[in-house]
Amino acid sequence: MIEALLAQYRQTRALSLSCCEPLALEDYGLQAEAFTSPPKWHLAHTTWFFETFLLKPFSPGYVSPEPAYEVLFNSYYNGVGEQFPRPQRGLLSRPTVEEVGDYRRQVDTAMEGLLADDTHPERDEILERVKLGIEHERQHQELFFTDLKYSLAVNPLLPAYIRGEMGVAGIAGAPCWLGYEGGLSGIGYRGEGFCFDNELPRHRSWLEPFELSGRLVTNGEYAQFIEDGGYRRPELWLADGWATVQASGWTAPQYWLERDGVALEYTLYGAVARRDDLPVCHVSGYEADAFARWAGARLPTEQEWELAASKAAPPSDGVGTGHYHPGVAGQCGELQQLYDACWQWTRSAYSPYPGYTASAGAIGEYNGKFMSNQWVLRGGSCVSTAGHLRPSYRNFFYPQDRWQFSGIRLARDPQ
Amino acid sequence: MIEALLAQYRQTRALSLSCCEPLALEDYGLQAEAFTSPPKWHLAHTTWFFETFLLKPFSPGYVSPEPAYEVLFNSYYNGVGEQFPRPQRGLLSRPTVEEVGDYRRQVDTAMEGLLADDTHPERDEILERVKLGIEHERQHQELFFTDLKYSLAVNPLLPAYIRGEMGVAGIAGAPCWLGYEGGLSGIGYRGEGFCFDNELPRHRSWLEPFELSGRLVTNGEYAQFIEDGGYRRPELWLADGWATVQASGWTAPQYWLERDGVALEYTLYGAVARRDDLPVCHVSGYEADAFARWAGARLPTEQEWELAASKAAPPSDGVGTGHYHPGVAGQCGELQQLYDACWQWTRSAYSPYPGYTASAGAIGEYNGKFMSNQWVLRGGSCVSTAGHLRPSYRNFFYPQDRWQFSGIRLARDPQ
Amino acid sequence: MIEALLAQYRQTRALSLSCCEPLALEDYGLQAEAFTSPPKWHLAHTTWFFETFLLKPFSPGYVSPEPAYEVLFNSYYNGVGEQFPRPQRGLLSRPTVEEVGDYRRQVDTAMEGLLADDTHPERDEILERVKLGIEHERQHQELFFTDLKYSLAVNPLLPAYIRGEMGVAGIAGAPCWLGYEGGLSGIGYRGEGFCFDNELPRHRSWLEPFELSGRLVTNGEYAQFIEDGGYRRPELWLADGWATVQASGWTAPQYWLERDGVALEYTLYGAVARRDDLPVCHVSGYEADAFARWAGARLPTEQEWELAASKAAPPSDGVGTGHYHPGVAGQCGELQQLYDACWQWTRSAYSPYPGYTASAGAIGEYNGKFMSNQWVLRGGSCVSTAGHLRPSYRNFFYPQDRWQFSGIRLARDPQ
Amino acid sequence: MIEALLAQYRQTRALSLSCCEPLALEDYGLQAEAFTSPPKWHLAHTTWFFETFLLKPFSPGYVSPEPAYEVLFNSYYNGVGEQFPRPQRGLLSRPTVEEVGDYRRQVDTAMEGLLADDTHPERDEILERVKLGIEHERQHQELFFTDLKYSLAVNPLLPAYIRGEMGVAGIAGAPCWLGYEGGLSGIGYRGEGFCFDNELPRHRSWLEPFELSGRLVTNGEYAQFIEDGGYRRPELWLADGWATVQASGWTAPQYWLERDGVALEYTLYGAVARRDDLPVCHVSGYEADAFARWAGARLPTEQEWELAASKAAPPSDGVGTGHYHPGVAGQCGELQQLYDACWQWTRSAYSPYPGYTASAGAIGEYNGKFMSNQWVLRGGSCVSTAGHLRPSYRNFFYPQDRWQFSGIRLARDPQ
After folding, report:
1. Preferred mutation among A240, A346, A372 to probe B, highest tally of B CBs within 10 A
2. Is the dihedral of CA D34, D36, D40, D45 positive or negative?
3. By three-state DSSP, how is residue D279 classified?
4. Closest Cα to residue B66, out of B78, B86, B84?
5. Where is coiled-coil annotated (chains A, B, C, D) (predicted)?
6. pLDDT of A183-241, one tens digit each?
7. What was the pLDDT predicted at A182?
8. By the number of CB atoms within 10 A of the CB, which of B103, C11, C29, D393 ranks highest?
9. Which member of A206, A241, A242 has the closest CB to residue B206?
10. Which chains touch C (3 or more CB pairs under 8 A)?
11. How do strand C375-378 and strand C343-349 relate by DSSP bridges?
């Protein structure tokens, strides 16, 4: 098992670097908004995580290459100490990319040493934390893509992350509804593998019967919402959503644009013609909710989503490798696009499960302290990392956030 | 029944005016923040509600004394039309208090006419809306007190709303825990009387066993939290709560103050010595949550609260009459201070019940569009209006809000 | 002389009250923006000035009716102590209007006593300060009108300060240019009467030959500037002015409005049809500067203005009494509208004269500390108080300010 | 002469590149605040200037390597067209540094061609604009240093721009006062060489007698001001300055810091021990003004400074080469540190000279439109470029700006 874990560690660490290969050195520092982080910072922070929660407490001889990194690359762990101000991460031209590479190598060497020590008195805790560190880095691999996309899009040159084809065209099947009976349902992770603390404890929840759409809402369907005045009709919106529309001037999803009368979408492949059959992507929770109301439907609760997903095929290994934009749905009949297209907004506020308790110490800040004002998203996206997803996984963002690959799966009460 | 309704109408309308009697004319325009409204505006807006949703649609001959009132006194009903900007309500020196009094009288006369017409083809809808209008005005009577308190407190002279004694001193009993079994529980309003649409539909919810504190947290207990560094320890707070503490500089509840080394609390009776035995009041949801964590407990969910309240004594008629500050709890043994002291923060986000649908038209904006980012409070307060409360009543505010009479009832999992 | 001073004192104090007569009690607290003050505050602050700088230091037995007034009604005198926050002056519903009236009467009584004491060892200083206090109150009388106008205009009902006719129509003469030779000129106050410290010391300044327009720019001329794209052409504007136009969305002077296609102007008489022959009013320094550039002219320097005004007729006694809007200019031939229409923006930054020294103590904060970032305006306006003006008078506001009666007199180099 | 101009062109262009040599590639994109620009942007914008004002109008065959550069690298020329938002210049990871290098080379080649064409019908205009372009790039070379210093200082690692010694220690002489008679003085540029339009026309100005300090205020003297409560005493400050101190929390010059009780100053050589004998640097105009008031002196007017400088030695060729921090003053006796230490705040608002007219077209936006709200600084600094300075040179910044090498030379009226 330690072999498997070590392989996973190496693979994950290597993937963070290979994701960066298409970048120009100048791209590593980009941070267009406070909520995004530069590529270099992701590389450093994921390393800091292993250094802080494993090497410093468990490897007595370990010396950090630079004591200031403790502050520079701390994201939000008050239990560790002060943090360099988030909105200024893009201003850290030093350490350079090369120096961050050195930092990664040094930590990796020390980590291999720690993992080789099978007599360590804290061996169990160490292995648990390594698993967490790997999952943590996988989360940042997804953020690497969404943050980078956001920052590149600010540049009027609309640079592509990668050259290539977005994938074969298709025809999204007609929407279809799949029915579920509900009842007293088990919610939360059950099993032997890794899960985050926010997926626990498994507990019972009563659900009324419901239906879910077999696939995600498409660009073409969303365009109809816009044409029907979707962004100008307050009656379709939550009050806070409408206030956001007014303040932000939103009239379309994040990356829709028009040049010389042609409908385009900015993607990690650059600006491409917008395709009606692809899932609408980069919409906020407010937009998802308003679209659903316009469509005579609603967003699912996270319990409904989990119940349905637990009866469907699990995420395949291929998820999230080599495709940087969601693809077209297949024909109706079963739940599609659960994990490989866009995260799916639910209308559930991100809250603790009954009986939830956070871990002790700084590592307990991982999830629990964010349980207010955010909404749960379920599933996964085209830029999620392989092996990272499961039916009980709870992603969470503020309802106004749009820079994730976030889309819409409709729900409704039985007709 | 129409007699009872008419009596209720008259009583409610009269109460709005009698609440204002202690005011100086200069107080009627006070609006210290955008989220508060001036006394005069409450008087006008509650009148506008009857004019807009009853007289204009159902009394063909009705003519408004001033067409501009439609915009001036519309709070947030986009379905009715534009609204005068909320932060500027205090700048409407005209219409004068006297002119608003004329407006009230004119609408009341027309309303009496409408209610007398028992052959009106829309009679049922009219009666439903009158009930809603009465409950609406009762809500504003509570807001009148909380808004006024907030605005008066800005003045260094700390003016009292009313002269008088706050009530007899007592000794808050030691806290005690009351246990509940949970299980599949019915949640939501059940009965024949009035309720808001957000209390419907009644539905099932699975609850694990839980315990509630018999009384509210006291000033004395909260002072211990402060002394123990409560406002300086991030580990006690939700992340958004901690950010709020940093940004706002909170170090105590809204109206605590110190003068010459004496601990005071600003109340509607002016600044008085702070009493350890009274419930802590005017805390935000974030503070309530942090206190609970510090105390080794948690906030209840709204379902837990409702289940417990449904087994306790209903709100008495005397609620909310003539006391402008919460009183001391009695001895332990049953649930106390449910309705007559402070609203109680739950950790439930304000969301639609399964199967919820809002009413059609502008009147449907009453509740549904606010179902994001707010937290549910349950119970009632010393300034709630008589007859206004019930176990299924859902109040809701943002977790950073402190100007309501909001306090803390603790919950915990069975030990 | 003391008789004359006493008469002036009484007259000035009475005028502040009589200006308020047309108000509703609800108007006394209006403060639409931080830079305006409520009528009641002006009444109290001008009283505070006499109390603070005369009664407290020179009348040993004097006791203030309320110690808190020292903070509440201090405008900006750090030397006196703390100040109640300026943006919240409108929130002081207490003291009531009646209580402020009591305050005025009590201070007036004490002031009469102090002035009667011709054996006071500080008699000279007292008389100097009384003169300053009178001039100070006259300045606030003008601010009373400009602040009130601004605050009333926020109300969609557009209330009039006073009912009545704005004055006889006329035809503004064609613009004409008056030439001045310049040379080594004496600038600053010369004489025996009162002047502010910023008008001193009189000194020499070299001026090149210049020309001034005989009258102010009219609404009709300004409308041509707008039609010619004045607010859309950055090349006409100072960079900071253009940034202000972009940020504020200005497209016309402060009080121009259009209803149902009719061009109106909000005045203290309410909204009236806009007249082409009246001076354009309530423009910022940036707008004045841009208009001048568009017109192929420029704004005068304050020295040019003073030189020209010193050769023209002095302000008449009638200035500022009973007219609340600027009138039409007469025929060309001499300098008109110097003191009785609109203050005239100069392009001179407000700076100390060579050799300037502020008075010692808090009273020295009156003028000197404002000598940065503001522009000098010269002349006077229709709401200036009688006896308050002279050629050397320096008024000053930020170039973005528009709520004064500020207009445009053009200058140019000899052709 | 064309040879000399060509040499100057090449030298200037080369210097921009050699200034960048100590940088890491990651530093080229740094922009810590909107008022600073990244090194790469300076390299591109100075190139854009030649392309826009010379190649596009005068070299018919010229084709830009990328049309989007017209917008990306336009600073503030509305006459040219839109500008990429200033605060986001640091987000332009593309074009890369290498691509900007290509851009520079391509423009240089085209410029050499244009300069070689001595039969061009617009030859005179071309040569004038080339001179302006060279001076423009020299200004940006100074901004390169001040912007970079500001951006590097945000990094807690406090990176040095260059390794090396700041220069030999010395002892600042005691301050001494030099007297000037004033009188009718000629102000503005007189001569055959290059000057900016804001130095024209030369004109007369009357000056009263005055005295200037022979050297700049030192760190040691400024430290006394701080110890004496300088930042806590409102009576020393202009009102806007005091408001800035309150809002910003200033307690010392921009780059003063303390670590472990040691007084340091961040410089382009990194953080070094603060030396009492060096000039105080990176103070705002407000701080300069407050210090002067505290010292019983005042800031000079720009006319006083120019009159004095016109009688002193002109700037030496060596100015601004190889020293990145101001040095110590020599012994008293004549005006020192005029051009090679810190720019010197005057109390003169930046205004047009009598008779000033801006050039026609977009190039006229260079100076004139900034003539409001800024203060004039005179002299030059240790990072000014060789050959760039003269007695009539007018630099200008907002009084709150501190990121330039700005210091204090005191003036006073004759004693």
Report:
1. A372
2. positive
3. strand
4. B84
5. none
6. 999 999 999 899 999 999 999 999 999 999 999 999 999 999 999 999 999 999 999 99
7. 95
8. C29
9. A206
10. B, D
11. antiparallel
Distance from CA of B30 to the nearest CA of C (A): 6
Q: Pairing between strand C395-397 and C183-187?
A: unpaired
Nearest CA of chain B to the CA of C83: how many Å? 11
Write out pLDDT tens, residues D221-257: 999 999 999 999 999 999 999 999 999 999 999 999 9
CA angle B107, B108, B112 (to 5 degrees): 120
Closest C-alpha to C308, from C378, C384, C372, C259: C378
CATH 3.90.1580.10, applies to C177-412: yes
Query: Which amino acid, one-letter code, is at A106?
Result: Q
- Phi and psi torsions of A345, nearest 5°: -60, 135
Confidence label for C362 from pLDDT (cuts 50, 70 and 90)? confident
Alpha-carbon torsion C16, C18, C19, C20, what sign?
A: positive
Q: Is the dihedral of CA B234, B240, B244, B247 positive or negative?
A: positive
**Window from A315-329, B30-44, B368-382, C22-36 with minimum mean pLDDT:** A315-329
User: Which of B29, B84, B156 is opposite residue C84, by nearest beta carbon?
Assistant: B156
D contact test, residue of C82, C245, C284, C373 with most D CBs within 10 A: C373
Chains touching A (3+ CB pairs < 8 Å): B, D
Answer for the pair C84, C92: CB distance below 8 angstroms, yes or no: yes
pLDDT in tens, C212-244: 999 999 999 999 999 999 999 999 999 999 999
Q: How far is CA A217 from CA A220, A254, A297, B82, C1, in A?
A: 8, 16, 12, 32, 88
Nearest CB partner across the interface for B26, out of C28, C156, C157: C28
Q: Is C321 helix (H, G, I), strand (E, B) or coil?
A: coil
The pTM of the whole model exceeds 0.90: yes
Tokens matching residue B221: 């207990």
d(CA B166, CA B264): 14
**Residue A383: left (phi > 0), alpha (psi -120 to 50), or beta?**
alpha
**Cβ contact, residue pair C365, D204, below 8 Å:** no
Decide if D369 touches C, using CB distance below 8 A.
yes
Point out the residue among D27, D30, D84 whose CB comes nearest to the CB of A156: D84
Q: How big, in percent rounded to 5, are the helix, strand and coil portions of chain C? A: 40, 15, 50
